[in-house]
Write a structure and sequence with these properties.
Blueprint lengths: L20 E9 L2 E9 L9 E7 L6 H8 L1 H8 L2 E5 L24 H16 L2 E11 L1 H12 L7 E4 L10 H10 L7 H9 L8 E6 L8 H11 L10 E7 L5 E9 L2 E8 L6 E2 L8 E2 L5 H10 L8
Parallel strand pairs: 3-4, 3-5, 5-6, 6-7, 7-10, 11-12
Antiparallel strand pairs: 1-2, 2-4, 8-9, 9-10
Helix pairs in contact: 3-4, 6-7
């Protein structure tokens, strides 16, 4: 079990726009049963096609908590996007963490990645979804599982958002997971190989946006460097991945460095926020593990997703 420091429960208030629907759903697969929440914007029209974002919560959280804390529903209402929030039950992990560090959950068509992919496909079959614009994101343990799932299903997810995450391939046990969280991967050169193996014959460059707090004492900043190296290493032309860096300050006074690797749609975008700890940058206090002073990770991720689609599709 990967543990996190205790966090008091936030006040429960509903910040979702009233014009949308926030539905409760359940799915059963050979790998297990999971609840999930689905946000449908008020503008939904079955005659149109909508992007879909699958968002994975962190340890001790649930679907409603992460929706409140990130304000993704409000952003999705504004942009016309469907949002799905799979939920990890305590029965699967006592802390409700996604089991990203266990080999049984690090493969295509097995374990938790298969459940998450099944949720996305169920929504795609039941609603008017643009199949070329299905994306996945997560925070902390959810970020590690989101990237694992994106690598396992590169034919399903167009792009991925990682906030305070750990690179797939960094751990295959609880002990290795704890060590990776504190120090990063011991053999960084093997991470891109691990990603390629997970993708198999479907291997491709995967556009991604990465957020990480430099002051995070739960997931060390070295993990963001691992992830960026893993992702850029998938590009067939390493010279095309030269970084372009810019610095800024959020409205809350936090300083950040935004680095873009690549051009056009083939990019990895990394945000390092100096003062940010283990919390969703720019989030709402209505959810746990959030910090409103940082740049708005929700809007930046959604903007990134809306600019990307599966290769070969407009």
């Amino acid at each position: 079990m990967i543990d996190l420091p205790p966090m008091p429960a936030a006040a429960i208030t509903d910040s979702a726009p009233v014009q949308g629907q926030f539905l409760s759903r359940e799915i059963t697969t050979k790998a297990g049963t999971r609840l999930y929440r689905l946000y449908i914007p008020g503008s939904y029209d079955a005659a149109r096609r909508y992007p879909l974002v699958v968002m994975l919560h962190g340890c001790t959280q649930d679907a409603e908590n992460i929706a409140r804390g990130t304000r993704f529903n409000a952003a999705a209402e504004e942009k016309g996007v469907l949002m799905a929030y799979p939920e990890q039950p305590a029965g699967a992990n006592p802390m409700k963490c996604w089991n990203w560090y266990e080999p049984a959950h690090q493969k295509r068509d097995e374990g938790e990645p298969s459940i998450i992919a099944a949720i996305a496909r169920e929504i795609m079959s039941g609603y008017s979804v643009d199949h070329s614009r299905v994306h996945i994101a997560g925070v902390s343990a959810g970020a590690a599982m989101a990237l694992t799932t994106a690598f396992a299903y590169p034919d399903l997810f167009a792009a991925v958002g990682i906030h305070s995450g750990i690179a797939p391939g960094a751990a295959t046990s609880v002990a290795e997971g704890m060590a990776a969280m504190q120090r990063g991967a011991p053999l960084e050169a093997k991470l891109t190989v691990a990603a390629s193996q997970l993708m198999g014959s479907r291997a491709r460059f995967l556009p991604a946006i990465v957020f990480q707090g430099a002051a995070d004492r739960v997931v060390n900043i070295s993990n963001a460097r691992n992830i960026v190296g893993q992702l850029t290493g998938l590009h067939p032309n390493s010279a095309a991945m030269q970084p372009v860096e810019s610095k800024g300050e959020s409205g809350g006074g936090y300083h950040f460095t935004r680095t873009v690797y690549g051009k056009g749609r083939e990019v990895v975008e990394a945000w390092i926020v100096d003062e940010l700890g283990h919390a969703w940058s720019g989030g709402s206090p209505e959810g746990t593990y959030t910090d409103s002073k940082g740049p708005d990770a929700t809007r930046e991720m959604l903007t990134f997703f809306l600019a990307h689609c599966l290769p070969g599709k407009s």
